Amino acid sequence: MATPNKVEAVAEITTDFKESNAAVLTEYRGLTVAQLKELRVSLGQDTKFSVVKNTLTGIAAKEAGIDAFEGQLAGPTAIAFIKGDAVAAAKSLTDFAKSNPQLVIKTGFFEGKSLDASAVAALAALESREFQLARVAGVLKAPMSALARTVDALRIKLEENGGAAAAEAPAEEAPAAEATEAPAEAAAEEN
Hints:
Strand order of the largest sheet: 2-3-1-4-5
Number of helices: 6
Organism: Arthrobacter mangrovi
Family: Belongs to the universal ribosomal protein uL10 family.
Protein name: Large ribosomal subunit protein uL10
Keywords: Ribonucleoprotein, Ribosomal protein, RNA-binding, rRNA-binding
Region (Disordered): 164-191
Number of domains: 2
């Protein structure tokens, strides 16, 4: 028979699964409380890192429709429930695991798909969402910047040529005026 505390714990874990776009299952055997606190801080506010009971987590995962953790819930288990940028959280987890080998990344899920440990590492190797958006903005901005520079260069060239044409125009008109005066003088001399 389930106790009210266990029912409440399952409901909380189920809610965490449903509200998260990704989760990473880890084993934390050998980590100190201070190290776990450091990991939680490095994950940021959008990620909840919780030490969980395996049986209750298995029940909650089934209720949430997640099968990524079947057969993986053994030993001291903690889950990173990721509500924000999954790439940044995966990067924080893998970086922490590199410097603290006691943290073992077992499996995870991202946008409804199961991930093994190597897929979590591949997710961590991606660039962050902000960096990708900045790159797209740069790609979109480049043609507009090139067009603006071309139009500005054309404007400057026209201004330079317009100023030169205005300076040259009186000089060109003078010979034309002399040419029209010469036939008039010649006609006057003939008379």
